[in-house]
Amino acid sequence: MKGIVIFIGPPGAGKGSLAHMCVKQLGWIQLSTGNLCRKHIIEQTKIGKEIDFAIKSGNLVSDALITSMVEEWLTQECDKQPVVILDGFPRTAEQAKLLNNLVEDRFKSLAIQIVTLNIPDSVLVDRLSSRIICQNKDCQAVYSLAEGSLLRPAQDMICDFCASALGRRKDDEYEAVKERLAVYRRHEHELLAFYTDNEQPVIQLNVAQPLTDVFKEFQCMIGLESI
Fold first, then answer.
1. What secondary structure does DSSP assign to 175-227, as a single string?
2. Residue 144 sits in a domain of what CATH number?
């Protein structure tokens, strides 16, 4: 049986890192909608041009456009691996509704499993202020300079995967982080309410612990045989 695993969690919760471990150790496939948006923009596809126009116009990229991008990706990729991880989508209740409709209409064989990554905001602020990102737009690997972190790069400020330079995002600065978290929490409440109202089970995962422990707990809670 094929499945979709949706990671719901604030910036810095470790969605990308957990997804990377699932890809590496479980053989799953990951979709990061943020990375996919950037790829479409760089390649100037039809979807990329629409996304780029919306951003440059100061508008939000519509839920319908993001869902259309995800639909195209699923059509091309979902048959290649048994489990697809969605990282960064859906972000809103409307996106969740569109995704449910899409799966019911086009991908009936894919069961959806929702996993929330729970962590205090105070821990997130510390994490994000220590976070650095690969500057290669085709890589975007995430690292941490926090003391004792397992995500420290092997070479100082050099990506382990593609040897590109690492750097900090402007939106990972302290004040920007607090604003991002406030916005995220508003959307998270509505998103989880949507799944609750639709009686879709939600797994609660504590991610305020080392990544290896998070991964072990995740494997125990997810029930791999049910996907």
1. HHHHHHHHHHHHHHHHHHHHHHHTT--EEEEE-SS-HHHHHHHHHHHHTGGG-
2. 3.40.50.300
